[in-house]
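Risk register update: the risk of archive-format incompatibility is retired. Evidence:
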Amino acid sequence: MRNLTRALGYILLTVAALTFIYPFLWMASASLKPENEIGTLALISENFSVRGYRAVFRQIPIARALFNSGLVSITATASVLVLSSMVGYALARLRFLGRDSILNLVLLTMMIPGQLLLIPMYILVVRLGWTDSYRALIIPAMISNMGIIVFRQFFKSLPQDLIDAARIDGCSDYRILFQIFWPLSKPVLITVGIITFIGSWNEVLWPLIVIRRWSMMTMPQMVTLFHVGGLAGAQVAAEMAAAMMLALPVIVAYLFFQRYFIESLALSGIKG
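Archived output:
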């Protein structure tokens, strides 16, 4: 009976996994099919074709969009890791007037829908003259309230003896953070980094608001305009190819850091 239950569990898990992964596999398959075969549900085609990818590179500056998204996402992720960990360390380990009020303010910002801030942020960007520039894409994403809370919770779980020993050796707070806490925080750093990178890479609404020049567009923005703006025409293979090029970097990054991501979920900052 136990073996039967286990077998049924495996079958259900397999069906659930296939349900989630099949649309992605079909998208990858459709990007390599000729147009007359895309309507079928089969994943394997005898007529392999890369015309969809050629059409993408021919019709839109996709390479420039890849560069823009990579630059913005990597810069924003690095900034979030540095700045959010600094704030998280201060809220976890330093004593100063108003610390609890700042923490409550950070928690409050997590309850405000991001869409409510789009108009004031856009007005600010226009007044500063940052439209159609990397500054409009990077600076608003340089710190993360989620990252601050995760780092704070993890740093609070580390033993105070580490800080006491470091202070005896003459370490400043910066050295304690970057030379002692950071090496111990690899799973948390990778988790916050992955979440930040994915969020920045997939962001489409904000670039659509502040970017107009083709040379400054990011991948999600350009792929969206390629799909809904009529640039792809009736070329479904080209649309799937553009979607694959958008999704692939994020999938590769997650697969590469998957072990650390799962480890962080097990021991991260959920502790009080």
